[in-house]
């Protein structure tokens, strides 16, 4: 018999046998978001030893994915190899009594999340708008060595490594070190990147990943001074590139390129990963290192009987009509 429950804290879910589906689909990640000030709205269903939970939060009249800018993806928590389709359908049906609008963001296509969730909501009467929200650059290693992989990189990248690879000293670590992390934060503040979103959350995540043996951290120094830093993790055969930054003043040395090369060598030749994931965003520099692009999808699920949704439903219908009649 299926049991449905709603929770306001990840503490309520710790006893369940959740599958470990990567850094952004385990209870501890959502607990970190809760500790950072998010207010979870957890929608769960169980039937015997089968469990599914949608980690959501309220935003006005909507329920949206519980996530933030550091997450590459969002996915349901679940037992077993994949979320149970029947439990997802039950959750979608019950959510109609709690919200008129549900937005599920950063969904993967390759793991079936988008299709499973879209089907569950459509089957229970929701109108579902499925659209691309971002892209994800990845590298499938396919058994190559780092040397083989490097030989296939663009000529300009390989030339930069030959000319400037000896201009900085590289140090790689799998431990969390307060001084190294302080150096990363100082470099980031002196880089081209926008202000860090939640540095305390990122630091807590790094500490926990290091404790689990998953952290890969790199520093590049020029004349003894830190000029570039990168934070990666290795998790379930995938290397995730979370953060990278270099000082603007050190740009002529290309320290970030040299540091990236060292970390690619580490994860390919030593960690033997099958995939390298460069996260979301279509930054041009990612194309030098990555070889495939995957979509990230957003599902906007609307209850057709809710008057508050009618303007959005009308706009959606109009956009669809225009796309059908527009000359190709």
Explain how this protein is built:
The protein is an alpha+beta fold. The protein has two domains: 3-136 and 294-325, Aminopeptidase (3-Layer(aba) Sandwich), CATH 3.40.630; 142-273, Gcn5-related N-acetyltransferase (GNAT) (Aminopeptidase, 3-Layer(aba) Sandwich), CATH 3.40.630.30. Helix content is 33%, strand content 31%. Strands 1, 2, 3, 4, 5, 6, 7, 8, 9, 10, 11, 12 and 13 form a 13-stranded mixed β-sheet that branches. α2 (85-95) crosses α3 and α5 (155-164) crosses α8 (255-270). The N and C termini lie far apart (51 Å).
Topology, element by element:
Elements: E1 3-7, H1 27-35, E2 40-47, E3 50-59, E4 62-65, E5 77-78, H2 85-95, E6 101-108, H3 113-123, E7 127-140, H4 146-151, H5 155-164, E8 169-173, H6 178-189, H7 199-211, E9 215-222, E10 225-235, E11 238-246, H8 255-270, E12 275-280, H9 286-289, E13 292-302, H10 310-325
Parallel strand pairs: 4-6, 11-12
Antiparallel strand pairs: 1-2, 2-3, 3-4, 3-5, 6-13, 7-12, 7-13, 8-9, 9-10, 10-11
Helix pairs in contact: 2-3, 5-8
EC number: 2.3.1.-
Protein name: GNAT family N-acetyltransferase
InterPro entries: Acyl_CoA_acyltransferase, BioF2-like_GNAT_dom
């Amino acid at each position: 018999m299926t049991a449905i429950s709603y929770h306001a804290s990840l503490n309520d879910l710790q006893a369940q046998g959740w599958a470990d589906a990567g850094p952004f689909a385990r209870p501890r990640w959502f607990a970190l978001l809760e500790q950072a000030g998010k207010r979870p709205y957890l929608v769960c269903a169980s039937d015997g030893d089968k469990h599914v939970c949608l980690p959501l939060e309220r935003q006005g009249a909507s329920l949206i994915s519980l996530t933030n800018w550091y997450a590459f993806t969002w996915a349901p928590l679940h037992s077993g190899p994949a979320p149970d389709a029947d439990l997802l359908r039950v959750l979608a049906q019950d959510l109609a009594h709690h919200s008129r609008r549900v937005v599920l963001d950063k969904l993967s296509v390759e793991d079936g999340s988008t299709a499973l969730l879209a089907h569950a909501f459509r089957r229970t009467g929701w109108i579902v708008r499925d659209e691309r929200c971002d892209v994800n650059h990845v590298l499938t290693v396919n058994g190559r060595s780092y040397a083989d992989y490097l030989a296939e990189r663009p000529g300009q990248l390989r030339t930069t490594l030959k000319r400037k690879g000896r201009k900085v000293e590289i140090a790689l670590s799998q431990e969390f070190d307060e001084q190294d992390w302080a150096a990363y934060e100082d470099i980031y503040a002196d880089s081209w990147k926008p202000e860090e979103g939640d540095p305390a959350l990122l630091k807590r995540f790094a500490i926990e990943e290091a404790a689990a043996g998953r952290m890969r951290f790199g520093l590049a120094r020029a004349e003894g001074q830190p000029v570039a830093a990168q934070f990666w993790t290795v998790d379930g055969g995938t290397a995730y590139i979370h953060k990278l930054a270099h000082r603007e003043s050190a740009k002529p040395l290309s320290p970030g390129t040299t540091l990236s090369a060292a970390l690619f060598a580490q994860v390919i030749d030593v960690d033997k990963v099958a995939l390298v994931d460069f996260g979301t965003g279509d930054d041009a520099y990612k194309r030098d290192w990555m070889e495939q692009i995957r979509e990230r999808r957003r599902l906007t699920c609307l209850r057709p009987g809710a008057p508050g949704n009618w303007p959005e439903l009308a706009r959606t219908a109009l956009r669809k009509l225009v796309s059908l009649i527009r000359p190709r």
